[in-house]
## 1
Amino acid sequence: MSSEPINEDIGDLFAGVEAATTGDANADKLLAPYEGPYQGVPHFDEMNLDGLKAALEAGMEKSLAEVDAIANNPEPPTFANTIIALEKTGDELGRVFTYWGIWSSNMSSPEFRAIQGEMSPKLSEFQSKINQNDKLFQRVKTVYESDVMGDLRPDQQRLVWLTYDGFASNGATLDGAEKMRYAEINKRLATLHTDFANNVLADEEGYVTYINADQLGGLPESFIKAAAAAAESRERAGEYAITNTRSSMDPFLTYSDERDLRETVWRTYYSRGDNGDQHDNNAIIAEILQLRDERVKLLGYENYAAWRLQNRMAKTPDRALDLMEAVWPAATARVAEEVAEMQAIVDAEGGDFEIAPWDYRYYMEKVRQDKYDLDSDEVKQYLQLDKLRDAMFFVAGELFNFNFTPINDGSVPVWHEDVKVWEVTDKTSGKHIGVWYLDPFARPGKSSGAWATGYRSHDTLDGVEKSVLSSNNSNFIKGAPGEPVLISWDDATTYFHEFGHALHALSSNVDYPTLNSGVRDYTEFQSQLLERWLPTDQVIDNYLVHHETGEPIPDALVAKIKAASTFNQGFSTTEYLASALVDMRYHMSDPTGIDPDSFERETLAELGMPDEIVMRHRSPHFGHIFSGEGYSAGYYGYMWADVLTADAAEAFAEAPGGFYDKDVAKSLVDNLFRVRNSIDPADAYLKFRGREARIEALMRDRGFPLPDTDSSEN
Ligand SMILES: [Zn+2]
């Protein structure tokens, strides 16, 4: 954050640490410094899985030796010899993980997964060795509690705090029997989280609904084909398999005319992990909640949620609850309206029944076709993949002053011929910023969905600004040579979303690696915000053009897309919020003797959950919060980030230059992108907006009436 790159000298602290080499050429390649242009780039063209295990082991050994050198330093602890020194550990292992990421997400194989299974426990053991290194923690603690803190810059103070907190909130402050109990709980939780996930998977694979040719009414051709193939692969050729996953359940419930079958498929899906058999998750949930509670009590917290949220933007469970409870009444009121509209259709058709949960998607689709008359195929004709990428570059140029130049000379190695690379520079000064990798197309072994990642982050630890290596990945279907790839509006939105993550990484100006880290209820803000530039006039007129005629997408079609965006918000907001509220209540309650089944039922009854909807994720298959701790007491984070997104978007909408207003753009980039985690996100937002984010913009986005509060007057 200094204007000049820093050069943090830690002397010869690591002089005694041996270099990480194995004698195995494949492993050494994965450990070796990057070579070539732009301060070096990964050797993606020379990665060989045969070297992975040895490289991981050598990388871990090197990291541990560095950590030991810091912990055993006879000099008294200082910011440089402890905090900065820690920032400088683990380079080799970090490089191995770059290749690991490619093997795990872009180029997976049974061979890789076997290594992953073998190495995961070893990697977790490695992490524990560092977290539980008491000598190391005592040094960190000394710096954190010393007067030196007052002399440090704010970003340096935050680095010290993040480092200290990383240890303290993971049990380092404990000793003796408590410390042992803490580790025991973690070990048991790791097993329970895995068991939970495996049980859900078993029920997804184990319960399949088979139907025959007379039961296909209403289903789209593509769905029928996939269901036939799914049955054939299960040795039930001639039948149709409705598998027990969201991607199968959702379209079936949306389109199938067979009400009884809709009920069967619905019940099967929402009973995952709740069938009273060997894959039932209820007892596991109860044990997880009790162990989590016991663990945070050791650290002196009132409950798990309080511990979890202390370093989130929301800070306290009550603030997260306040947000959810403010939106909840509007969402459930909208459900009542949606149900009334659907019931009118049922009644007009002479159906003698009331809308049940398995009818919701089906009748919503009828309302949608009726009301919005939006032909998704017509929209696609204006959404060409290449043009959308050019549109993203245009937006990055306007907001970030970035220029993207294709690198076609082969100087930057890639892992597959479809992967393309661009150099990112400052438009005015020409200064190099980083390299952007794009892996756009689906192929076997590649994870589904879309994601952003990086292979090197910005810092200035060695006295130079690091060149950022950032990447976007998606699963578009490759077109015939020379044909444009046409995508849906949702996919175009996701394309912009992931590019928002990339811009967040590329714009970083922090001095220390740790200050690039994310905050769970804040990390989706930057990416969600970038989605808002897709429907701007500049993008529409120049990039959303018909692939044959070159005509921009008609205003009327854009208006339809915008109108349809508030559709079905009663359903989607309510099913989401029900899960988020139950998650938070679980982690704020005393879990002694808890019965998850009745807890869930009673909590929903207390909230006034509409009968026609269930939680998006019912407890026995709520993997976000029980397959690990990534989103436990954190599922609210999606909405938290969305409040910021909606509110920040209105700052642009209100500005003289709209979404391309130079002053607002500069403030956005300076205050909310470049600083990454070097400043508390709440303070950063305050700097940008001059006030805290308010929920009114989110309510407007979702088409909900504004809550009756003073702030809505503004
Ligand atoms: Zn994202």
## 2
Amino acid sequence: MKLKFWGVRGSIPSPGAEFVKYGGNTLCVELCIEDLDRRIIIDAGSGIRLLGNELMCKKAPAESLRADIFLTHTHLDHILGFPFFTPIFQKNARLNIYGPVTCEDDSLEAVLGGQLSYRYFPIRQAELAATIDYINLKEGEYDLGDGLQLTTKYLNHPLLCLGFRFEYNGKICCTAYDTEPFQNLFTTDPHDPSFDPLMAHEGAAAARDENLRLKKFFSGADLLIHDAQFTQQEYDNAKRGWGHSPLEYAIQTALRSQVSRLALFHHDPMRTDAQLDQLAHMHCDFQASDSTEVFFAREGMVVEL
Ligand SMILES: [Zn+2]
Ligand SMILES: [Zn+2]
């Protein structure tokens, strides 16, 4: 498998001279299984626009184009590139779009296609020329054919967000795009009027169980792509409950799960190249003495699995 990062930035595209090295496009990763000639795309942030352009350049005019697009969830930074993904306008393109249903009454097609209405965009969803199938995902195991397996797990985010574990030919690639540590939802402060010792105990147990399940979900991965939007200090000061992880937690998670390589991902849109370099110097240089290689994902970076 060969993986390429097309967008690594969270929340909103961040163009500008201070964002050139790591890139300003929002989330999109391409996973190619070369011996099967299969292409998996994980999320459709603004990075998917360049990927679509490259796919169109590579193929012959009459050649059909096939891709499986997996959406972790439908927050805007993960889908805003979809209307600019050129293959959706091609008759000979066949796309399967997988994702969790996150609005009870609306289908995945309606949620994603909501961007393609005259209110927001000059072309409507009904005008797309590609053949597109929408497939709902829940937590579970999926056989994607050709020996390719997918396991999904709900993460901790304000909107249902799925973690993915792709396995093929003994190689494992896991993603946790938008998530933060599971924590006790009930107060543990006996002086708080809402304190209930039983609920506090059960809340702690539930959080511990979910964190253990995540550890197992990532275990032994050759590559884990993990949310690292904040530093621990930022998280503790003001960002707890926002649905994103401190990078220190992402590193601890990878070490606990004995992951070979950890790609820190979903960079804060305010974090400049110089600041990311500084964090990399502080947090990634220990890798030589450890079994887990840690790096900050950069747009255009390729990882062989
Ligand atoms: Zn996001
Ligand atoms: Zn999100």
